[in-house]
Amino acid sequence: MRRLAAPRAQPEAVSAAWLAIPVLLITGVVVVITANADYPTVSLLLGLVAGSFALVVSSPVWALAPILFTELTLPGQMIESLGVSLRLVVVLSAATMTVFVVARCGLFGDGRARRVLLPALILIALATLGNALSSDADYVLKYFRYQIVQLVTLVLAAALLRDRSDLKRLAVFALTIGLASAGSAIWQHYDRESAIYGPASPLYVAGWKGRVLGLTESPVMLANDLIFILLPLLGLLAVSPLRLDRTRALLLAAAFVLGAGLYFTYTRSAVAGVAAGLAAIGLCLKGDRRKIILGVVVLVFVLFELLRGTGLIGYRYYRDASNDNSAASREALRAVGIAIALDNSLVGIGRDNFERMAVEYGDDVELDELALRGEKAIGRERPHNDFLGVWASWGLPALVAYLAMFIGTLANYLAAARRADRLVRGLAIGCLGGLVAYGLNSAYHNSLDSSTYLFMYAGLSIALARLPAWSAALSRGRRRLLTGSALAAVPRVQLHSP
How many CB atoms lie within 10 A of CB 173? Predict the structure, then answer.
């Protein structure tokens, strides 16, 4: 008789378990150093951001963890002692820790990467040139530094996600943070005084007229965060088998929590973006699944119209420029922004000159009745439209590069959506829907100046499109190991006689 020896524990699993100790130690030290009685949760979040760097010892993909953590909770946090943003420190630290992994990944020789990276590089070059022509050196450097952070985020997302297990790890990590933020948002809606906040307090909810913030700074940021988590999750559910087991029940519950948190932000463009993203997911599918998803989108729209005035849906979702100052201000800013863009279509006016130029154009632009309601926003706010903002700031060539980033990213997702692997396919379709939702939402906000999500979507599209090629290469590598003299290097099951 022969028996198989007990399998050995995987080294990576053991190291990951031991890494809990340094993660907790680093977190505790940072919490003590940054303790803030006014915003105690911020200290904990900073500690978790710092502590998550220890996970990189287990796998390079964990360098994306602190980047995601920062983006989902503390995107506007400043490190006063250094005079720079937390986002900058985190991204550069992650890049430094994984520079050799990125250098070996062959990213820049891949056509799927170039279709996204080239437009991004052109956009940054045109933005820097446009700012240099109309702004002082300090602002040019500041905005260039911010765009480098966005570009490095893209490269890291594309280079560090190397296999299926990396996808699972990062997806679970992002879902966990998203659920925590959505859960706190729901709590804030029902009991703002006892709820948990990030860099905010119950006064912020009152200032936003009941709109929740989750673990971030504003309902608009929270809506963008939850779109980034919810749509990929919906993509996974859309391609999963049509049976309800424990895993799918938990994912459905998670989608409900994320959706409820998003709803309570009362961000109209974000909810409309989710509907558009879900429709895009449906169009990527075939047969009954496509019909069901598109049918759900139509049904929700019909119910939304039928429930108007019943009080069952938040009144803010039915307001428009005729009875809402926020919507009216967008009408006014759009009219002025288009006039500025048309008169400066080649190189734009620079990123920081819109408010000043809007005052000069305000008297000359003829506003309709709805836009007149928001006239006070002219000279005080940016255009609240990323597409118009890019055009007015840096000219038509920059807008073309900006749109090319979207097109290249969509092309990568469509390529990955044809894979047989449900995880890769579901995330590709879901991220495609998320990109559509982001694009619609950003047409009503200045998301490009407040988040790195567009660049994250771009980087993830490269990673997902490249995963099948990497998997095949790894399989060929394993077959080569099983031949010739390399056979001895392969761990084998040991047989023992009784």
Answer: 18
